[in-house]
Request: fold
Amino acid sequence: MAAMSNRQVQATSTAEMEDLILNISMARGMDEIMAVVRHAARRLVGADGITFVLREDGLCHYADEDAISPLWKGQRFPIESCISGWAMLNREIAVIEDIYADSRIPHSAYRPTFVRSLVMVPVREDDPIGAIGAYWATQHAPSPESVDILRRIANSAAVGMTNVALINSLAAAQEEAVRAKEAIILAMASLAETRDNETGNHIRRTQHYMRALAEAARGHQAFEPELSESMVDLLYKCAPLHDIGKVGIPDNILLKPGKLDPDEFAIMKTHSELGMMAIANAQRHLGVSNCFFSLAQEIAHTHHERWDGSGYPRGLRGKNIPLAGRLMAIADVYDALVSERVYKSALPHDQAVSIMVADRGKHFDPELIDIFETIATVFQDIHRTFVDMPHGAGADAA
Ligand code: C2E
Ligand code: SIN
Ligand code: SIN
Ligand code: SIN
Ligand code: FE
Ligand code: FE
Reply:
């Protein structure tokens, strides 16, 4: 009878062990690993408490626990003064039947607790990065089987923790690559801008117009679903790239002081597609799909489409024009109107607003131009804040 139930217990534990090892090996974060250990280990060894201890420099951090009453969760102890530290420093399992008869134990820390017996197993035998403790309230000689189960749990935790560390450093490296690419693209954008603008302030202004307009549009039912907070932030980041395709436009056209003839304007118009392709190329080289690049492409591609379908490059009409492009059109034209360009002088704010409002439903999304009208003074303030300074001058020029 006893032998049979033993075998039964063993069969259950084997299945549970396999589950636990699988779950730990699939964990994507430390919290998950500790949760799996916490839930399974205590039952597998029939303990009254389990702790998960992380090594942090010279300290043992009691990071997680599951016990009949509180142990030391959240506390940190010097590695030399606790039994988890002893197990890590000595790379050895500690099996202690009576903690009050063992000099390695800081008795004062245990007096407030239920603990009488314990097993402490280092995680990663060759170079411990943590430890798992099992505790019993009544004096108890832990069986070799439970010590072995704890050792195996600790070994899978070691594998899991190594995975998590790898995943984290991969993610960090990937993030860094994305940031680097974004920085390069922004540098390219400012290069494009400085060719047809005296200063880089156009970039900063279009960013701020974009955010102001998108935030205002968020307050309207028609736009709210498409404009989450993170979307507004992404629009703000992508806006400077709208004219990056101008890098590919020859100087004699881009910098022509007068009106462009039809052939020249036809070349000028290719900047939308050039820009989209440049950003797509950068994204391809990076080898990741990333919402920054997709949105930046969309903005570069569609910022010269017009609500009535007379824009370029595709002649999209109405809501077929992506919202990002409809927003960008307003930010872009406002800035073009109130700024001096090689081909035109600056218009006063009020005149710029009337020109744009007159194009409601022709060039611009009618609902968005209404919103623009209500916050036009915000645009004016942005233009004043990031005013273009004359060459060499330090002070304000407006
Ligand atoms: P941009 O200077 O950034 O102008 C962006 C958009 O603002 C223009 O797109 C146009 O929709 C609007 N805009 C600019 N100036 C005026 C204006 O005086 N009146 C009105 N109603 N709207 C204005 P668009 O026309 O597709 O031009 C795209 C780009 O082509 C311009 O970007 C600029 O770099 C260049 N460009 C356009 N016309 C000329 C020109 O006559 N001479 C030169 N050198 N470049 C031009
Ligand atoms: C332990 O030794 O297991 C924890 C408590 C302490 O170090 O004081
Ligand atoms: C693309 O068309 O490839 C970019 C997104 C857009 O322009 O809608
Ligand atoms: C233009 O007149 O070419 C562009 C601006 C507009 O339609 O309002
Ligand atoms: Fe443009
Ligand atoms: Fe522009």
About this structure: The two ends are 96 Å apart (CA to CA).
